[in-house]
Each structure stands twice: as structure tokens, then as C-alpha cells.
Amino acid sequence: MATPSPHDLASSVLVRLPRELRDSVYAYLWDQDILSTLDYPSLLISRAEPCRSTTDDEGNAICLCDTPASIPPFAQAVFVGYTFATEAVTWLYDNYEGFVLGDPREVMRFFTQDVFHIGVTPMGFPLRRLTLALHLGHPSANEYKDALAFRFAPLLRVETRVGARLHVRFESRAEDSRGHRHLFHAAMLMQALDSVVKEIKQRGIEVSMDFKHLLTGIMDVGHMLGPATYAHWVEFLRTEYAVALRRAAEDDVQLQFVDQRVRAMERVFAAGSAPDMPVAASRRAWVGGR
Ligand SMILES: [Zn+2]
Questions:
Q1: Residue 77 C-alpha to ligand 1 middle, in angstroms?
Q2: I need a surface site. Which of 67, 88, 182, 188 has the fewest CB within 10 A?
Q3: C-alpha of residue 188 to centroid of ligand 1, in Å
Q4: 3 state SS of 211
Q5: Per-residue model confidence as pLDDT tens digits over 91-108
Q6: What are the extents of the domains in the chain?
Q7: What is the 258 CA–ligand 1 centroid distance (Å)?
Q8: Distance between CA atoms of 286 and 272, rounded to whole angstroms?
Q9: Interval 57-72: pLDDT, tens
């Protein structure tokens, strides 16, 4: 007997197993190795539509595009048929908690783009868990509060479920943490997120926010939502730096390092203005609002 093709195996699973057992199969297929190589943000960019497709006997579109190696065969209709691939992708969107987006510009694409070219997008599923890992000092730092708020707006349209959660993480890299820009960006992002986060919390989505900082480690920044300006961020970080200095006091080398960095930041804070930001943007970040 010839070795069954992936298509035959998939058909056999569809015929013999009820949906709840098929979901266990999909849960098993999307294993950690596959999920860790999926690299969803790069699929959002590389898997543009429209799709070059043909149709199967039932009239379903079967994608014939060049497919990145990170998309597993069991999520490709051309290998396993339309129904199996669609159910596999549906399982992913309905259950996976590890989606991480690194740029506000990815939010709209994430919810509305059919990266598997199978007619299914995350917008069709109640939110389970999404992480926004926002790199302070990123090129999107050039966007003002209103433009950023527009980027986050799709979050207002998603359905929710019990336990739904949005986690926002700010990160600043060594090269970005010396100047003003990352703090202006933090102020802009928080002002933009303010109304979005308030509204989705009312709809039952739990929201957590933190800042992974070189000197201080991970700090909760949920309380910085709202009108927090650049000046508020300076005040907040000064307090956190004092804590970091006290913690470092046990270790001379560590203390010297932290002390140097804090002094450098103090010089930046003292300078008071932001030469690397457009004047209008820096004024808005200072005073809040528009
Ligand atoms: Zn396609």
C-alpha cells in the first residue's frame, strides 16, 4: 500500500474524529517549536494580499502563493485541504496566548490580515491574550498622540471573553535610553493608550502595563496612564533610580555603573528640552493633551 499523502491523512482525521477531538489534534500540531518559529509580525509584512489561488471541488480558495517556511504544512490548504487547514488556523486564533506585536502600526494588520490566506483573521475571534511590546525610541516615535491612538483603535472593536488580557510592555534599549526621545515616546504612547485602555477595561479586558528598563528592571507603569507628561515620567524615573541606587549600594561595580547612568540621565533631565523631537511634539508631550 502506498504511503498516505498529507491530504489523505487530513481527510481521514476529518471523517473519523469529532470536532472536539480534532481540536486536540490541532493543539498538538501547533507545538512550541512551530509556534516559536512562526514569527507572526514578519508574516504580517511578508504575506500581503491578494492571494494567488485556485479553487477546490467545493469552490474553496486554495492558496498557491509562495509560502514562508515558518507556516507549517498542516495550515496550508494546498497540502491538507481547505477544511483541515481552516480548522487548524481557527484553533490558533481561538486559543493561542502568545501573540506579540512590536509596533503600533501592526495592530490593525494583526486583526484584519489573513496571513494564512485561508479566509480567517483574528478579528473573528474574542480576544484571549495579546502583548504589545513597544520599543521606545522606535521609528514610530515620530508619531503624535492622535496618530498613535488611531493605531490602537482596532482594540476597541474586538470581542472579548472571560479572562481576556492585553499586556503592554515598554522597552528601551541601551542606545535609546540616554536621551529624551524614549521618555517623550513613553508619554505619547501612554496619552494615546489612555482612552483605549479605559474603554476596553470597561468591556472586561484585563490590562497590565510595565516598562523593562536597563537600570531598574521591570517596573509597573499602569499608574502612568492618562495625562502623564514627559515631566511626570522624569519624576517617576528619578524615584525609581533612587531605588536602583540603593539596591546597587551592596556592590561597588554595580553602584558605579548605576551611578554613572543616573548622572547622565540627570544631565538630560536638567537640559529640559528635547532637541531630537519636533517642537510641536515636545510641547504636547510636556503639557499633555493636544
Ligand atoms: Zn495566497
A1: 10
A2: 67
A3: 37
A4: strand
A5: 999 999 999 999 999 999
A6: 6-227
A7: 51
A8: 10
A9: 999 989 999 999 999 9
